[in-house]
């Protein structure tokens, strides 16, 4: 593809091709709190027929907190990107901020990309990128992907998109445990996640 190109990846920083940073590429990194990320990935793995069966929620909880999921430890992934965000052209975004104030976050992206859009276009982007609108769109909801790959009768690809759904899955003990693991693993970082709005 001719430049400029847009690529999407889930790669942790240590697996990025060095040329991405050497060529001064711009990165948009979207981080989601560990609790909701775990719930989302659990349901995605349940419906994804290519990935291993995640087992029960209790089993998956252990798998996730031990970093035995695709792309490795959530903690290492997020910390890796957070630690290099000031060395390269990285706009570090939080999913929770996007949910709380999508227009503001889209304006951040627009400025980062050196674009200037009028209010009408900005409002249209906010509307078209809402979870509800994207859930209806076959280009984003993966409804055109065969059931043999993504079985949406198990769980929709775009399930809820909310902040705080973890409360419907975590036991009190699991919540206390992940909070303690978070304190240990993220110690020394200034990163701050919201787990509810």
From TrEMBL:
It catalyses: a phenol + 3'-phosphoadenylyl sulfate = an aryl sulfate + adenosine 3',5'-bisphosphate + H(+); 3,3',5'-triiodo-L-thyronine + 3'-phosphoadenylyl sulfate = 3,3',5'-triiodo-L-thyronine sulfate + adenosine 3',5'-bisphosphate + H(+); 3,3'-diiodo-L-thyronine + 3'-phosphoadenylyl sulfate = 3,3'-diiodo-L-thyronine sulfate + adenosine 3',5'-bisphosphate + H(+); 4-ethylphenol + 3'-phosphoadenylyl sulfate = 4-ethylphenyl sulfate + adenosine 3',5'-bisphosphate + H(+). InterPro entries: P-loop_NTPase, Sulfotransferase_dom. One of its GO terms (cellular component) is cytoplasm. One of its GO terms (biological process) is sulfation. Pfam families: Sulfotransfer_1. Gene3D superfamilies: P-loop containing nucleotide triphosphate hydrolases. Keywords: Cytoplasm, Transferase. One of its GO terms (molecular function) is aryl sulfotransferase activity. Its main location: cytoplasm. Its EC number is 2.8.2.-. It is an enzyme of class 2 (transferase). It comes from the Eukaryota. Residues 1-189 form the Sulfotransferase domain. It is found in: Cytoplasm. Belongs to the sulfotransferase 1 family. PANTHER family: SULFOTRANSFERASE SULT. This is Sulfotransferase. The gene is LOC102747532.
């Amino acid at each position: 593809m001719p430049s400029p190109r847009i690529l999407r990846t889930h790669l942790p920083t240590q697996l990025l091709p060095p040329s991405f940073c050497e060529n001064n590429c711009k990165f948009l990194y979207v981080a989601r709190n560990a609790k909701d990320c775990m719930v989302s990935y659990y349901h995605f793995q349940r419906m994804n027929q290519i990935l291993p069966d995640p087992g029960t929620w209790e089993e998956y909880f252990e798998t996730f907190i031990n970093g035995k999921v695709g792309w490795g430890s959530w903690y290492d992934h997020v910390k890796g990107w957070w630690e290099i965000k000031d060395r390269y052209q990285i706009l570090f975004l939080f999913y929770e901020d996007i949910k709380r104030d999508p227009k503001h976050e889209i304006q951040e992206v627009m400025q980062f990309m050196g674009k200037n859009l009028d209010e009408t276009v900005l409002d249209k982007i906010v509307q078209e990128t809402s979870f509800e609108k994207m859930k209806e769109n076959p280009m984003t909801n993966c409804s055109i992907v065969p059931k043999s790959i993504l079985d949406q009768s198990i769980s929709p690809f775009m399930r809820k998109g909310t902040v705080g759904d973890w409360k419907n899955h975590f036991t009190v003990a699991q919540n206390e445990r992940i909070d303690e693991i978070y304190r240990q693993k993220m110690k020394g970082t200034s990163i701050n996640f919201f787990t509810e709005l």
